[in-house]
Amino acid sequence: MNRQVPGLVVALLGASLLGTATVSAQTGSRGELAAADSDFTAPRMSWGDPDLQGVWDYRSITPLQRREEFGDREYYSDEEIAELEARAARRLDEAPDPDAPSNLVHAQYMVDPGRYVDESRRTSLIVDPPNGRIPELTAAAQQRQAAMRRGPRAADSFADRSLLERCITRGLPGALLPGLYNNNLRITQAPGYVAIVHEMVHETRVVPLDGSPLTGVPTYMGESRGHWDGDTLVIETRNFNGDVSYRGSTASLRLTERYTRVGPDTIDFRITFEDDQQWIQPWTAAYLMRRSDGELYEYACHEGNYGLRNILENARDAERTAAVGQGGAEGGQ
Question: What is the distance between the alpha carbons of residues 309 and 292, in angstroms, rounded to a whole number?
């Protein structure tokens, strides 16, 4: 369907994309990063909506799922937080070992997951179910995952590789959960619209707030509509095409995001997952976003797609090596 985008939204997107630059390392003490006071009143845009604009950083060393040894314990102790954050600081601040294998150096020093436990002090980002764990898979999902584990991933063609490896999309909700790097987004607002620019794979979502119906056209990122629930921006996303899966999610996935400004430099973010083809019940993750000191750089993935070329080249090398080995074994019989 060819839908016209209002000129105001075009201008909004241009401002978002032209203003992209990187966010520097997460700074400040835990006190400086604390969630805002209870008397905070969210500022307003000139047309009355709460002001969520800016570049927001959601790095966190809090795991998505609670470690099983914690059981039902919801919060870290002061000692546990100190240990976790000291370990993260060493990883980020200490010089790499010059004698270490290059792949280990890259794994440790070429990423930026952050240095702080989420300010909530919770032992997991998942807040529902109460055990802090992703719910069990449905019977159909278990069968799908068993089938996927039966053999190695193909690399006969670029089409065999994931859309992220091909620099096409990371999809949702992957772009909204803390990962190894690029945990930043920009929110830009206009009357009746919100644009969210995700640093990872430089994708922009334009979310109508005017009550317009969903078109039903499936896409990689789904189709989003938003509304205000008091001072909370609620974004509901449906109509995924199923080609970008998160932990096995299907085209039935439904996401509900909630953004609430709770301090001058803090947004409380919550996201609920519903997919009755994948999990036996919905689940919710939550964390605090912090205002960034910097902008966003364009995330250009790997220029020229050299990474994908190398994946395919290595696959061909492995095939040739296997063929030579098989020929030698046959010759010795």
Answer: 35
